[in-house]
Write a sequence for this structure.
């Protein structure tokens, strides 16, 4: 019998705003940050987890993680029921008032839940994607909080989905291990970059084997058209160029702006408006259904700011999106993302995770690989975002090869930061900040 | 010229769980609490504000209020643009990541925005309802953050609504001052109360002049039927009995349970399911459209946990609710509630605010009175919740007379707690807790 003996929390911030890395129309000067925790046991490895923020307020998330510590200390990681554990964090009768299941408390729950997954997978000697992929359909269904989902998806329907994917698991594990999982890159497209830098990085992305890139839009309309035009000229017609407006528009403006950009064949428009606005996404998607140069749709994508499974459920029920963009730390960690992966299969919509930030690539690759092996069974039109920032701070950083994520082999969730990074970038007293 | 010189924050908690006051199916043991702040100036009165929580996590909200202090200190309360000020809190480019506009950061923004309104109204020598009711339609429109609203309501449409209500303002102020604003009471209906206590308090409510009461439901089905039956017998057929399930059900269960309760003529079902679930509320409302004993609808109500104006907008666009339940502290304070009041008029749905807790009655009465004078111009089917808890801790507590809120006359937002209450119930070091 092992026991979790203590939880240490950290406020880690990287001064990324100094170089305009990560700049977009809504977030002009982010300092990529992590509210980070370590679960220590009396026996064996630690569990690491974090939630991602963009600077100010990282301390508020750390305080929220501290509020969840009583639910973790004393648990035995070898016998913990991971479904019940996740629900204990999101359904505390007093803390639930602060959401429910959204905002700071949910970001904190994600950090703690993911830390527990890191710990449990390490103790099992498996990377998280493989730990998940080795569970039975029944065990996977038990991870999910089914409250508020049953009008769209029942546990029995989920079991059917998972059982249908069972026969091919071994083949898909082999394929994943051999070829990896497709990535796309946002590195060329930050709003603060010059035209020359956009062209140079877009060409480099193609040379590196990526078949999809992404550009930020949503500030000046003429700038958006010019940047998309030069990027399209730089990469040619075969490379998919996704656009990301970071929630800047109302419905009419989103439709007008995208029609101006349509001649340059954008693959999707991400976050055209508020992430809470199911009906607005449905209206935008409908208005753009024949706007592509070939008369097809401009796809609508969202998810990095979608608060929880209830909002994803509605986006799917309302035919509001073409692409589900899960985030490893926005919703309630692995467990709630399993629910969203199942919903996406039910509605036939591909999942293309949000990543970037600090460590989001490291985490979310596991979820897409699990999805491929045991849930959707498909990589078609599926790509995981990749941004080449800050990976050097992780002990088991992502590896990209020919535009693909290489399947992680180290046990755990690839979540652990280097101790020297935790110290150097500690806010406000670390050497990077004083 | 005056200036805000400092902000002091407090974690105040009342041990209400000891008596099961406030108990419901989702919140069995709340300790009613306030994350509280005082804006001090170099000249004249202080501004008081708070957000309401039910215990654990109140410290997280206080940390979030602390994160907003840089936006307040140094402002001149006599020249501050209250619209721009509110937007500065909710659109900070880094803090926005933690929501956007939801959860802990939005609760904190509400506290700070409401404190500023308290301060500004005190300096003008008016209660907040009257300060608002004396603004021009143009000034009221400028209070609102119009982002994400224009597919449902434009600033020009809002101006039309407000101009249409202008001619009768003086008459309605006189009527309000004379008769007050109708209240309903939830005091009889807490889930932890015995049947005898429910009957006794229900009869007392009628004797006190209330024409509507509310009961909690959502735990045991047979208990719900029994309690509603005895309450109906106690108050007779003319008193409206609202029910509140506090988010306990999925769609099918909500419909089934309400059909069982329908013979006892419930006036509305509040929070039948997740507050994020626009489509579920629409489905439930549709299923109950002819379920009342007279073949009419059982109304659907929600709002105390609705995160922001974007979700309210969709609830109205989707015909999902019959009753809009604003909360003074859940969304971004006075400003965002003005937006919601305007949306409700556009869609012809009455506003019946959520109150109770700590100080929510004190605050929200101002918003309904402003709505009557300057926005909807109507009290029809409109009632403000009233719960007789914890008013003794306020310097200017609500006054209920013949089932009506008496219009406040003291300058400000009725938000200030007694200094001795702030000290006694300070958590964890106040005498009530040690």
């Amino acid at each position: 019998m092992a026991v979790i003996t203590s939880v240490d929390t950290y406020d880690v911030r990287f001064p990324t705003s100094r170089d305009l890395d990560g700049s977009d129309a809504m977030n002009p000067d982010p300092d990529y940050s992590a509210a980070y925790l370590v679960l220590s046991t009396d026996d064996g490895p630690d569990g690491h987890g974090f939630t991602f923020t963009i600077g100010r307020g990282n301390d508020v998330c750390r305080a929220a993680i501290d509020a969840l510590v009583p639910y973790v200390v004393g648990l035995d990681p070898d016998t913990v029921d991971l479904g019940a554990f996740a629900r204990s964090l999101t359904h505390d009768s007093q803390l639930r008032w602060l959401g429910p299941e959204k905002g700071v408390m949910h970001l904190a729950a994600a950090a703690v839940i993911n830390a527990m997954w890191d710990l449990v997978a390490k103790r099992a000697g498996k990377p998280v994607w493989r730990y998940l992929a080795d569970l039975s359909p029944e065990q996977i269904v038990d991870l999910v909080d089914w409250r508020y989902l049953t009008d769209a998806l029942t546990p029995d329907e989920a079991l059917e989905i998972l059982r249908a994917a069972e026969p091919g698991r071994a083949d898909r594990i082999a394929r994943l291990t051999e070829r990896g999982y497709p990535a796309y890159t946002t590195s060329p497209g930050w709003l603060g970059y010059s035209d020359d830098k956009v062209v140079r990085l877009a060409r480099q992305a193609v040379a590196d084997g990526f078949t999809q890139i992404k550009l930020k839009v949503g500030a000046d309309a003429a700038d958006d058209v010019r940047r998309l035009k030069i990027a399209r000229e730089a990469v040619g017609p075969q490379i998919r160029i996704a656009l990301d407006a970071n929630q800047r528009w109302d419905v009419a403006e989103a439709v007008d702006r995208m029609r101006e950009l349509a001649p340059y064949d954008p693959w999707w428009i991400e976050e055209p408006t508020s992430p809470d606005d199911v009906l607005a996404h449905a209206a935008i998607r409908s208005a753009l259904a024949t706007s592509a140069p070939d008369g097809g749709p401009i796809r609508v994508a969202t998810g990095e700011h979608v608060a929880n499974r209830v909002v994803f459920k509605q986006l799917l029920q309302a035919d509001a999106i073409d692409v589900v963009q899960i985030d490893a730390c926005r919703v309630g960690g692995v467990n709630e993302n399993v629910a969203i992966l199942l919903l996406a299969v039910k509605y036939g919509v591909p999942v293309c995770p949000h990543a970037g930030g600090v460590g989001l690539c490291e985490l979310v690759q596991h979820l897409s690989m699990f999805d491929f092996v045991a849930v959707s069974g498909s990589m078609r039109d599926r790509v995981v975002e990749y941004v080449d920032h800050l990976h050097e701070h992780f002990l088991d950083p992502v590896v990209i090869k020919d535009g693909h994520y290489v399947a992680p082999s180290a046990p755990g969730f690839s979540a652990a930061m280097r101790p020297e990074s935790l110290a150097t970038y500690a806010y406000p007293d670390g050497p990077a900040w004083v």
Notes: The longest strand of chain B covers residues 4-13. Chain B is about 40% helix and 15% strand.
